[in-house]
């Protein structure tokens, strides 16, 4: 692996409370700039479904190999869902850079801290809702969460907002007030005059 791949193609981390608009903005960014960005391939211990290919949908792995990688600090984020483990490895992010694309990571606070401990040289962007009240309205408007889930997301949102304010935790904070305006600000920062945060 060339150590410089993520120097040239620096990964972008986008974090922010659930409902702050990360998916909405990323979808636009990907549509406006095809073949520029990529998502890393996650690891999972669940068996492949028909038609799924190792290394494409997921890096399919065993429980033992997964645990080993956790111990080695090889994951940026990992979690358990329905009895299976899932994770984003540092190597999977580097692989995207190796392919000449900017890896975009949509991750939570703990993941951001972990990214900072790696040699990925990631650029950190925080997408903030204008207020918690507006966030609540958007979460409800999205219609994907029940009452309990909305409450949990709002509690977590407060923690994420406080974290983003800590010195040196984020390089760029964009407030998602008006979607078009916020999108332009994100886009400009990401593209960075064609440098994508690197040196030409
Ligand atoms: N600037 C905006 N003004 C009004 N509504 C918005 C704005 N940006 C996003 N939304 C809406 O808010 C809802 C939440 O947005 P989205 O699903 O993109 O958030 P997210 O950060 O990706 O959430 P999660 O982390 O849960 O995936 C969506 O219904 C979206 O259409």
From TrEMBL:
Pfam families documented for this protein: Guanylate_kin
Transmembrane regions: none
UniProt KW keywords: ATP-binding, Kinase, Nucleotide-binding, Transferase
EC numbers, comma separated: 2.7.4.8
Gene Ontology CC annotations of this record: cytosol
Stretches assigned to the Guanylate kinase-like domain: 9-191
Protein origin, superkingdom: Eukaryota
Family annotation (InterPro entries): GK/Ca_channel_bsu, Guanylate_kin-like_dom, Guanylate_kinase, Guanylate_kinase_CS, P-loop_NTPase
Family named by the database record: Belongs to the guanylate kinase family.
GO molecular function, one term: GMP kinase activity
Name of the protein this chain belongs to: Guanylate kinase
């Amino acid at each position: 692996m060339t150590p410089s791949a993520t120097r040239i193609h620096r990964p972008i981390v986008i974090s922010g409370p659930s409902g702050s608009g990360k998916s909405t903005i990323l979808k636009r960014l990907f549509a406006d700039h095809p073949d520029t960005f990529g998502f890393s391939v996650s690891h999972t211990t669940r068996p492949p479904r028909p038609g799924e290919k190792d290394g494409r949908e997921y890096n399919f792995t065993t429980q033992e190999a997964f645990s080993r990688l956790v111990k080695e600090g090889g994951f940026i984020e990992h979690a358990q869902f329905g009895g299976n483990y899932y994770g984003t490895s540092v190597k999977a992010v580097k692989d995207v850079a190796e392919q000449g694309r900017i890896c975009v990571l949509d991750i939570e606070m703990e993941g951001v801290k972990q990214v900072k401990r790696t040699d990925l040289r990631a650029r950190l962007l925080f997408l903030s809702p204008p207020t918690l009240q507006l966030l609540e309205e958007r979460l409800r408007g999205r219609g994907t969460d029940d009452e309990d889930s909305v409450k949990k997301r709002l509690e977590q949102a407060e923690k994420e907002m406080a974290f983003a304010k800590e010195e040196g935790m984020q390089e760029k904070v964009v407030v998602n007030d008006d979607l078009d305006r916020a999108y332009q600000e994100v886009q400009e920062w990401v593209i960075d005059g064609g440098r994508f945060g690197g040196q030409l």
